[in-house]
Amino acid sequence: MPESFLVIASVRIINGLISSLISAIQTGGILVWDLGLTLFNAVAPLRPANRVVPEGCPGANGLWPQYIPAADTDSRSSCPALNAMANHGILPRSGRSISFRELNAAIRTTYNFSPTFCFFVPNYAAEMLSKSYWSDTFDLSDLSAHNCIEHDASLTREDTFHSPDQGEPCAPLIKELLASGTGPGGNLTTTDLSRFSGKRRTDAKKANGQFSMSTFHKLFGSSNSSTMLTIFGGIVKDLRPMLLEERIPDGWQPRVRRPWGLTLTEFQPTVLKVELGIKEEVQSALSLFGSSTKKAA
Ligand code: HEM
Ligand SMILES: *[C@@H]1O[C@H](CO)[C@@H](O)[C@H](O)[C@H]1NC(C)=O
Ligand SMILES: *[C@@H]1O[C@H](CO)[C@@H](O)[C@H](O)[C@H]1NC(C)=O
Question: Is the pTM higher than 0.70?
Answer without folding.
Answer: yes
